[in-house]
Specification:
The chain is α+β, with helices and mostly antiparallel strands and 142 residues long. Helices cover 33% and strands 39% of the residues. It has one domain (4-134): Molybdopterin biosynthesis MoaE subunit (Aldehyde Oxidoreductase, domain 3), CATH 3.90.1170. The longest helix is centred in the middle third of the chain and has 19 residues, at 58-76.
Length: 142
Amino acid sequence: MGNVGIFRYGEHLLEKILQEVRNHPEKDRVGAVVIFTGVVRGVSEEGRVRELSYEVYREMVLDVLNEIRREIVEKYGIIDLWIHHIEGRAKVGVETFFVVAISEHRREAFEAVREAVNRVKKEAPIWKKEILEDGREYWVQE
């Protein structure tokens, strides 16, 4: 599967990532696993949300995610990091974004996940459109 990736609706990624965590070559060092899961909210400032649509610049996204991953693993000295984001449409309640950090201690894992989430939202070539129940659509600026 790999540490970074783009997935489609219906793929059960979190279970696969956790299996990789359990089988990690340095699993004996792991004292903390921190998981962030982004989920489609049913409400926004504009109204009731029906679904989100994510567009991804495939030629560039994996390089960006890998660079974010590499820099964060180095910066926080964590054991490993996974970053996976959805492409396409996702209805309310669907998981769209996973960041998982493993480390010896919880502090650096929490900090690594927080930074990874923020950097992906700012740096990755992934764009989000909200589609409201009343039919309006608009691109979300993060």
